[in-house]
Design a protein that fits this description.
Elements lengths: L4 E4 L14 E3 L12 E6 L30 E9 L15 H14 L3 E6 L3 H13 L5 E9 L2 E2 L2 E4 L2 E4 H5 L15 E6 L14 H4 L19 E5 L8 E3 L3 E2 H13 L5 H15 E5 L12 E4 L10
Parallel strand pairs: 4-5, 4-6, 6-10, 10-11
Antiparallel strand pairs: 1-3, 2-12, 3-14, 7-8, 8-9, 11-15, 12-13
Helix pairs in contact: 1-5, 5-6
InterPro entries: Caspase-like_dom_sf, Caspase_cys_AS, Caspase_his_AS, Pept_C14, Pept_C14_caspase, Pept_C14_p10, Pept_C14_p20, Pept_C14A
Keywords: Apoptosis, Hydrolase, Protease, Thiol protease, Zymogen
Protein name: Caspase-7
């Protein structure tokens, strides 16, 4: 078991700036008047594929490929938007520790073979323009696309340095009807940001519950939903804070990096993300002299519209 870290945590309900060495949720300013108190963060140590089936129906169900085709010249482009400093008008404090997240996730995706672009402290307009520009590029020689958003947030919204923008605006340019060269290919979004101001108190669990063939991508002649082949991995579930250590990075991104570094070329993406869920849910917990912020937990959330299994090995 790793040694406990003595930290100071604040709410990224950021009425105040981050305090050195502590954990803090990536949220909007808290409406209450509570003051950050001394706390500490504890971190624990941590076959044969069935054939695709075809079905006959009056709705012309077409036999689907079982695996995403990764045999392209390049794995994909990865865009990292790391927002750490915010205009005073937003009321949001600096997201100390986010630079470590950005550096670690950049290294992680480069190791997978992605071409990584990192942009720091982007306004809403710049964020939207950046992703629109990337979506307009030719991805014909790429197997997939990935985007990592590191910022403050609320439900359905992500913060630029000057305010909020709907997350939907970040993903829409990559829909099948707008980015033709990514049709039938996975579009992955990893979002480190709060989704509300609830705190997860956790619950005591029974010990038994916590112990330890290749096809081409969709043919243009076959219709697929324009929202297909997206995956959004959120750092927390709807309505809740997401925690970030101001020295060591966020619980979610650091767990994601660890799992990808160890298993990124062996496991399918949903297996990787399920392990990330487990790591965050069981390996982190806040401790606070204020009972309102003591023993708080977090679990990431996966929203998948993927239509095939994704393995990063080529």
């Amino acid at each position: 078991m790793d040694s406990q870290l003595e930290t100071m945590e604040t709410s990224d309900a950021d009425c105040v700036s981050d305090v050195e060495g502590g954990d803090t949720p990536d949220a909007r300013p808290d409406r209450s008047s509570w003051i950050p108190t001394l706390i500490k963060s504890k971190k624990k140590k941590e076959g044969e594929q069935p054939p695709a089936s075809s079905t006959s129906s009056p709705h012309r169900v077409v036999a689907q490929p079982y695996l995403y085709n990764m045999k392209y010249a390049n794995v994909g482009k990865c865009v990292i938007i790391n927002n750490e400093n915010f205009h005073r008008s937003t009321g949001m404090g600096a997201r100390s520790g986010s630079d470590k997240d950005a550096k670690d996730i950049q290294h992680c995706f480069q190791n997978l073979g992605f071409q990584v672009v990192v942009k720091n402290d982007q306004t809403c307009e710049k964020m939207e323009a950046l992703l629109e520009k990337v979506a307009e590029e030719d991805h014909s020689n790429y197997a997939c696309f990935a985007c990592i958003l590191l910022s403050h947030g609320e439900e359905g919204l992500i913060y630029g340095t000057d305010g909020t923008i709907p997350i939907k605006k970040m993903t829409t340019p990559f829909r099948g009807d707008q980015c033709r060269t990514l049709v039938g290919k996975p579009k992955l979004f990893f979002i480190q940001a709060c989704r509300g101001s609830k705190l997860d108190i956790g619950i005591e669990a029974d010990a038994a519950t916590t112990s330890d063939s290749e096809e081409d991508d969709a043919s243009p002649k076959n219709k697929i939903p324009i929202e297909a082949d997206f995956l959004l991995a959120y750092s927390t579930v709807e309505g809740y804070y997401a925690w970030r250590n101001v020295r060591d990075g966020s619980w979610f991104i650091q767990s994601l990096c660890k799992e990808i570094n160890e298993h990124g070329r062996q496991l399918e993406i949903m297996q990787i993300l399920t392990r990330v869920n487990f790591a965050v849910a069981t390996g982190f917990e806040s401790a606070n002299i204020d009972p309102d912020f003591d023993g708080k937990k977090q679990v990431p959330c996966i929203t998948s519209m993927l239509t095939k299994e994704l393995y990063f090995q080529t």
